Amino acid sequence: MSGLLLTGIGHLTTHDGDPITDAVVAIDETTITYAGKESDSPAQENRERVDCGGRAVIPGFVDAHTHLVFAGDRSDEFARRLAGESYTKIAAAGGGILSTVEATRSATEETLFDLAAKRVWTMIRGGTTTVEIKSGYGLDLETELRLLRVARRIGDELPVTVRTTFLGAHSVPAEYRSDRDGYVDLVVNEMLPAAADHADFCDVFVEDGVFGVDEARTIFEAGGALGLPARVHAEQLSHLGGAALAAEIGASSADHLDHVTPDDAAALATAGVTCVLVPGAAYTLGTPQPSGRMLWDAGCTVALATDCNPGTSYIETMGLVISLGVVQMGLTADEAIWAATRGGALSLGLENRGQIKEGSPADLVVLDAPSPAHIPYRPASNLVQTVIKDGSVIVGLGPADTARTEPPSPARLHE
Ligand code: NIG
Ligand code: FE
Question: Is-above-0.85 flag for pTM?
Answer without folding.
Answer: yes
